[in-house]
Specification:
48% helix; 18 helices; seven-stranded mixed beta sheet; single chain
Amino acid sequence: MSISNSYLQGIYDSLAEKSTHEPEFLQAVYEVLESLCPVVEKRPDFVKAGIFSQIVEPERVLQFRISWVDDAGTVRVNRGYRVQFNSAIGPYKGGLRFHPSVNLSIIKFLGFEQIFKNALTGLPIGGGKGGSDFDPKGKSDGEIMRFCQAFMTELQRHIGADTDVPAGDIGVGAREIGYLFGQYKRIRNEFTGVLTGKKAGLGGSLARTEATGYGLCYFTKEMLAAEGEDFSGKRVVISGSGNVALYACQKAIRLGAKVVAMSDSGGYIVDENGIDFERMREMKEVRRARIQTYVDEVPTAQYVSGCRGIWSVPCDIALPCATQNELDLDGARMLVEHGCMAVAEGANMPSTPEAVSFFREKGILFGPAKAANAGGVATSALEMSQNSQRLSWSFEQVDGMLHDIMKEIYQNAAAAAKEYGQEGDLVTGANIAGFLKVAEAMLWQGVIF
Ligand code: NDP
Ligand code: 2IT
């Protein structure tokens, strides 16, 4: 495979040479550069100002040690990261991921994606991402709290409400954000909107918990409507059962669909009667149980161990909402074979490049992550606005704004795809629309000639 423009291929090659241990980062960059080929032709000013080669390099990469004490009194050491990728259109903004698989490649890929996603929201937020290889599974509440405090003790010197505003991602939800926020306030003596995804009582926005999943469904609704379709009566398969998956499930059901399968990293459940959202939510959010527990409580449901098989469950719409590269060519083939008509990405980069090409080839409606899951960060930006105003808006007000934002993201991605000669290709459209906004802002701020 090669990028069809030799200038962009050259940028990719020199990056690849320096990033041999960063496969996920290179995968994300490759897709964006490939999409930008028609922009190179149209915008020689961007080439002259070196925008393409600058945008693939983070403005700043921070890596730090996190030492904390577990319940047994043993000192534990983890690695922490914050990649401040691009601040052309606003303060760095993006989540924190706590998962044992976290490394620099994963944080750089997520930070890179975040630049374009955040631009697509139409709100003034730059791109960043952070996290740690800390594994929250099996940790007590006290251990989670002490880890978060140790993490923030270092991170606090690098962030601020107008500088860099982290939020949640895998393994980081409202509980962790609360502990992180408490430590920031303790050290800096400031009650500011330095983190989003806070509980409402700490200044968090209503509807932020639901926003990524709801936004994903709002985006999918637009994508379906363009083909004269909707959610009503459709079978939906959702991978994952975390924050994004849960609220995608709730909204899909409310829009008339039947959600028949969900998963965690251990396996998946199938419930032909349609998943009971409230039971699932309580099980995952309150009890923090494994998904297998669902079949103990709903005898008609089945559990299959191993999460990859979920794509063999027949469905009309697939919403991958767990993690990167969870949907490969085999999964894509199974989906298409069983009549799936639309795939929209709730997770970041869940489909492998081979899966994306296959969907394109088969004419499957495909909503790429940057566009389809932007509702979470968009609502985070609304939380920042509320914090600055020291006011809070109603659930309905925020949800209404989220709905409008997702509609606009769909329209902008579709319009950019058309303008640049790739009508119907939302991958290309989203990449171009996000890029143009950031590239113009970089140009205006003066680039060294
Ligand atoms: P959560 O931690 O709430 O849930 C993650 C879910 O994915 C869990 O069901 C988890 O299973 C599963 N999962 C995680 N890692 C793996 C893995 N390696 N293999 C298989 N399953 C895995 O995270 P979120 O719901 O917040 O995030 C899910 C995805 O959505 C991520 O890609 C994230 O980057 C993306 N995203 C999140 C946003 C947000 O606002 N939270 C916004 C936009 C995108 P288990 O419990 O077994 O680990
Ligand atoms: O991937 C993402 O967009 C997120 N995890 C949400 C980031 C945020 O700042 O709300």
